[in-house]
Structure formats: structure tokens, C-alpha cells
Amino acid sequence: DAMVIQNPRYQVTQFGKPVTLSCSQTLNHNVMYWYQQKSSQAPKLLFHYYDKDFNNEADTPDNFQSRRPNTSFCFLDIRSPGLGDAAMYLCATRGGLSGAEAFFGQGTRLTVV
Amino acid sequence: TQLLEQSPQFLSIQEGENLTVYCNSSSVFSSLQWYRQEPGEGPVLLVTVVTGGEVKKLKRLTFQFGDARKDSSLHITAAQPGDTGLYLCAGARGTGNQFYFGTGTSLTVIP
User: CB A107 to CB B42 under 8 A?
Assistant: First the structure.
């Protein structure tokens, strides 16, 4: 059974129209991550939560926001998507202990038209 | 500047050949993970190495963690077309929670 679930798998949005991507986990992990992955590149960390503590990477654009209403759910909000935001968005969870492994969802492929 | 540098970036080999992928950093990691990712899917965990000098084997894959815990390698013996994919090392420094990926190695095994 999937432990990290991302919805939807594919999302098409219009240029400038706000969009929200969802992630849920059944692992009860403290840490949740959002990554952006463009074609043929490695995933790039956007931000992470440790419980309710939000940690933004220095180079994450302001256009990207996140919410974590409870342990199980985390959302990625893109306020005004541009063509350059088309990518695969990956959610991951981790136990928060030193050496703990990260587990990933299947990703959401975002297309901006 | 990338925290974790992988080499080579691209690798295309014939079925049956051996290969090694390297993951290097100037920082010490409490552990490193190796993932394999297929197009359109999320990364799938292959192995975690924790102890400096540790060697782990997973069928035809051998993973090694450097003595100083700053680098790791993945060796594949007798590569098969099913090994094709993007190989990523990843880890968190010390006790931090930021979990970073290496630059990735795209492997193609030609039948």
C-alpha cells in the first residue's frame, strides 16, 4: 500500500491561475518535503516541515507556498504559475531521526498552458 | 554549488558491462541513501549506508560509504536493460532535516 500519496498525478493549469498540489502520508513521519524536478535534472528541495515548523530554502521563489494542517497532509500552493514552473513536484516524508530514510510519493506532473 | 556531486552525469553502456557511479561531497553526512527513479515516477529507495567504510550488497549492486562519510559509490555488475534509470544519492547533513539530492546519473543499458 502506498505510504506517501500525491494527488493528482497530472495537473494542468493556466498561466497565472493559482494551483494546489496535495500530499498525504500514512507513516506518521515528522518531516515532510516538497521538491521540484525538471526534465533530466535531480529533484530540487523547495521547503520542508518539521512538525509545524516551516523551513524555506533560500532560493525558493515567493510564488511557492506550503501548508501543513496536520501530520498527515501537506499542500504546495503555486500562487501565479508561470511556464517555467512546469515540472514534476515530489513530496517526501522522513522520520526526523539522524540517518532516517526519505520516502517519496509518485509525484504530480504540472503542466502550465 | 551542489552539496552532493555525482559522476558521471550520463552513462550509456552495453548489457553485461560493469559500471561505477560516484557521489562526493565536502560535507560529512550522518547517512547517505541511493535511489533509482524511472521517468514519470518518484524515486525509489535502494539502500541506506550509515557507517563509514560500510559496504552493502543488493544482488548485482554494491554500495560503499567512504570512511569519512563524505562520499559514496554504487557499483553495478553485469548491467541489464532493466537497470536503466536515473540514480540519485541523497542525504541530510549531521542532525539537520534538509534532505538534499545529488546531481544524478542517468544510466542507459543497451541490449
Answer: yes
- Whether residues B90 and A102 touch (CB distance < 8 A) is answered with yes
Contacts of A50 in chain B (CB under 8 A): 97
Q: What is the pLDDT of residues B22-56, one digit of tens each?
A: 999 998 888 899 999 998 899 999 999 988 999 99
pLDDT 10s digits, A45-95? 999 999 999 999 999 999 999 999 999 999 999 999 999 999 999 999 998
Tell which residue, B10, B1, B6, has the closest CA to residue B72.
B6
Do the strands A108-112 and A10-13 form a parallel or antiparallel pair, or are they unpaired? Answer: parallel
Alpha carbon distance B74, A31 (integer Å): 27
**B20 is written with which cell numbers?**
561505477
Q: What does the alpha-carbon distance between residue B97 and residue A98 come to, in Å, rounded to a whole number?
A: 8
Determine contact, residues A34/A46, Cβ cutoff 8 Å: yes
**C-beta neighbour count of B67 within 10 angstroms:** 11
Does residue A96 have a pLDDT over 80?
A: no
